[in-house]
Specification:
alpha+beta; 7-stranded antiparallel sheet; 8 helices
Length: about 425
């Protein structure tokens, strides 16, 4: 059944000028879970529809949507014949389906490695733009999550990016390699306690979500415009060493979320949120760009066609600028294998992250594993005292997850980071009991 909904209760900042955007999609989210000895259990979600948003420049926008192409049949989109063809064409594009060979490969690898596997695929056929200029593209990401339990019951998992869900040989190699790495870490002895003073080392590709939270969300245009961002109120001021830059853009990812334009049809640009240590530009959609008197940065994104576009991150990267001298820790150091947000206050900068699995590197060269940790601190303090560790940048995402904001979840995002060191005392590290 198709339906059309009109709303005029979506308040947006006053852009000062009218605009109209159209959006169409045919999108897939697929999750296939398999445990040793079993067969993949597949969950598949497909959305197909269109929307149109009109702002009259008075601080309000009208968002209409309809399933399939009913919006065009009602002539409410206002698209011309050529653009209407583009909007319809993306809805006819085929979506990925897990083949029998693919399912068999996942089951075989799970049995061979003893690992629980989760294949995640996000595929978006989208078209977006103004009524007189609509462009189409495909966004596609595949990840494989590998989880293993140690002899003492400790579970450890990693998500790896794959180029294609159809490449069964690559899936097998990625799963086997990752399971072997996990088993090697699980075989390490368990540390008696967390040292009172230890550096926190964020290895490449293992902590992108950290900067997504402490820098990314506070630099989204609507948060900055609300004057509730601890970074936004420091615009142009130095908050970090000059060798640190944090950027976000739809064209930044070699692998991960990538798109030439956003869900309003605006070209994606790279925004320097932290520009060589100083607070840079915010990420904007069209409404916020109008209010701030700037050009849109290509960060107008939506969960799907049923939702209005709002400023959202795409691919966030924390970099060590070229030529920076890196130094290893002088004492003990802790490496978390993934940080999960527990609490973030964008107004104060205070945060709490959970680290389900970490390694402890002793100053004498010994390595052991730690139980679950919480990491607490303050964004401004961490940024001002952070140290470079490794120039190499690696990426991370889970196609089965995403970012949530203002009721829109999940929106696919990806992260990347160079190696960075948070000196002892800048954050709190605390062991937590197992559930």
């Amino acid at each position: 059944m198709t339906r059309t909904t009109q709303t005029r209760d979506m308040a947006v900042p006053d852009s000062g000028s009218a605009y109209t955007t159209v959006f169409a999609e045919h999108s897939l989210r697929l999750r296939a879970d398999v445990s040793p000895g079993g067969r993949p259990v597949e969950r598949r979600s497909v959305v197909r529809g269109m929307s149109v948003e009109r702002s009259t420049g008075d601080g309000w926008a009208e968002h209409r949507f309809a399933d399939d192409d009913a919006l065009l049949r009602s002539r409410r989109a206002g698209a011309g014949p050529v653009d209407a063809d583009t909007l319809r064409e993306v809805q006819e594009r085929p979506l990925f389906a897990l083949s029998e060979e693919g399912a068999e490969t996942l089951a075989e690898v799970s049995a061979e490695t003893g690992a629980d596997l989760t294949l995640g695929v996000v595929q978006q056929h989208v078209a977006a733009g103004g009524p007189d200029r609509v462009r189409a593209t495909e966004r596609r990401v595949t990840t494989l999550e590998v989880g293993v339990a140690g002899e003492d019951g400790t579970r450890h998992s990693r998500s790896v990016l794959c180029d294609s869900p159809d490449d069964t040989a690559a899936l097998r190699e990625a799963a086997t390699r990752t399971a072997r790495d996990i088993l090697g870490r699980l075989a390490l002895p368990l540390a008696d306690s967390v040292p009172e003073r230890a550096d926190l080392v964020l290895l490449p590709g293992l902590a992108g979500a950290f900067f997504h939270e402490i820098v990314g969300h506070p630099m989204e245009g609507d948060v900055v415009a609300s004057a509730t961002s601890y970074l936004g109120v420091r615009a142009g001021r130095r908050v970090a060493p000059g060798w640190l830059s944090v950027v976000d853009g739809g064209l930044e990812a070699v692998r991960g979320y990538r798109s030439p334009f956003d869900d309003e049809g605006t070209d994606c640009s790279t925004v320097r949120l932290i520009d060589r240590g100083r607070v840079g530009r915010p990420m904007t959609d069209l409404a916020l760009a109008g209010r701030l008197g700037t050009r849109g940065t290509g960060h107008g994104r939506r969960q799907d066609y049923r939702h209005p576009a709002i400023p959202r991150m795409t691919h966030t990267v924390a970099r060590v600028e070229p030529g920076t001298v890196t130094r290893p820790p002088a004492g003990d150091w802790v490496t978390p294998y993934g940080l999960r947000l527990h609490l973030m206050n964008v107004a104060s900068g205070e945060f709490v992250f959970d680290a389900p699995f970490s390694l402890l590197h002793r100053a004498d060269g010994g390595v052991s594993r730690l139980g679950p940790l919480t990491v607490t601190g303050h964004g401004a303090r961490v940024l001002s005292g952070i140290e470079p560790f490794d120039h190499r940048v690696d990426g991370y995402l889970r196609a089965t997850g995403g970012c949530g904001k203002l009721g829109q979840y999940p929106v696919l995002v990806s992260f990347a980071n160079a190696g960075l060191r948070v000196p002892a005392g800048l954050v709190g590290l605390r062991a937590v009991g197992r559930a």
